[in-house]
Amino acid sequence: MRTFIISMVVLAVLIGIGIAASGPVMKAIREASKPIWRTVEVSTGEISTSVDSTGTVRPVLSIQIGAFVSGPIEELHVEFNQEVKKDELLATIDPRLYAAAVKRDTATVLRDTATLNTRRAELERIKALLEQAQREETRALGLYDDNDGFISDSELDGYVYSVKSLVAQRDLAEASIEQAQASIEQAQANLDNSKQNLDYTKIRAPEAGIIIDRKVEPGQTLVAQFQTPEMFVIAPGMREKMHIFADVDEVDIGKIIKAWSEKRPVKFTVDAYPEDLFEGTIAEVRYSSTETQNVVTYPVVVETSNPDLKLLPGMTATIEFQIEKKENVMRIPNAAIRFLPDVKYVHEDDKEIIDGTAFENVEDDGQQAELTASQKQEAEIKRQRRHVWYLDGEKLRAIEIKIGISDNRYTEVLEGDVAGRTLVSGIKPKGGS
Hints:
Blueprint: H1 2-33, E1 36-41, E2 43-59, E3 63-66, E4 71-76, E5 83-84, E6 89-93, H2 96-146, H3 153-200, E7 202-204, E8 209-214, E9 221-222, E10 230-235, E11 242-249, H4 250-261, E12 265-270, E13 278-285, E14 290-292, E15 295-304, E16 316-333, H5 334-338, H6 351-356, H7 365-369, H8 373-383, E17 385-392, E18 395-406, E19 410-415, E20 422-428
Antiparallel strand pairs: 1-20, 2-11, 2-16, 3-10, 4-6, 4-9, 5-8, 6-7, 8-10, 11-15, 12-13, 12-16, 13-15, 14-15, 16-19, 17-18, 18-19
Helix pairs in contact: 2-3
């Protein structure tokens, strides 16, 4: 009996100890199962939204220099990357055939000029004889009219015939002179053409610039009968200005046009100098669209200076078009916008938000593509309404906000009571930081 009593007492003590310990144990279990929240602060600062693209560096102008005449290249006076002045001699084509043509045509002009001078002299001689014959005819007519018998009809006819003959010779000489003048003009035209061809054997720079390509070698023969062979490519003004050509998706082209009208800056890098950040402006948005695999893009031209010649033709640029920039605005880290809590952590009064808007904070491009125009507009307006979450005791409460522009870190808050609050952006992993 005594043993039974002792056993019951021990059992009662153990039960009491278990009951007394259950409270802290349960509390410890509850504490261990509690989530550790990641939090972010609402702040005031700058937000800059942008559109990213890639482009190709090109000179503002590329001049292809060809040869108008054919022949072997006698000399090359420039090399790749050489800076040249306007009218500087670049190359010489063998001029011997063209110099010979100039000599031939010069001789023809001299010959025809001599012929013309001879015919002019002959004309002057004929005019003198004609003048003398006309005087004799006039005197003979006077004598004949006096009828004194000093001149017969046959003699008078001789004077008249002589004048007519000389008039015919004069007219023939004048026609011969006109023919000689035409021959001289033709010969002079041939001479001018030959001189120009001779001048074409000297290839000169039409503008000052840099030789970015040379496509010929000394001794190479050029044939220019069917098409103009290309010899050099000159890029004028590469130190002053370069262009970057980018293809921008139609989704973003409206933003780019807005940035263009507001003269927003453009920043870009090139792989050759990843540590350098270059800056330019939008020079042109072209309306000639290109469609590739159902994707429509528009060419956008960015203009920038290039004093150090770091930007070379053909380089690939990673471009950031600044679309909008705001300072001193209320902003929330994007993680808080994207966070959607598990319903078990949410306060009873806000659970219907999770049930009814579980996907409002998630963009579904697939569903957006199936909407009508009016539905897309309505969805875009609704997209500006979001919910963010803060910790109230052990549960999360929601705050509705209206968002504005955003960048890769922050989103602007247009409406919503979040000033000075600490917001939840996620759950930390157990044992993590």
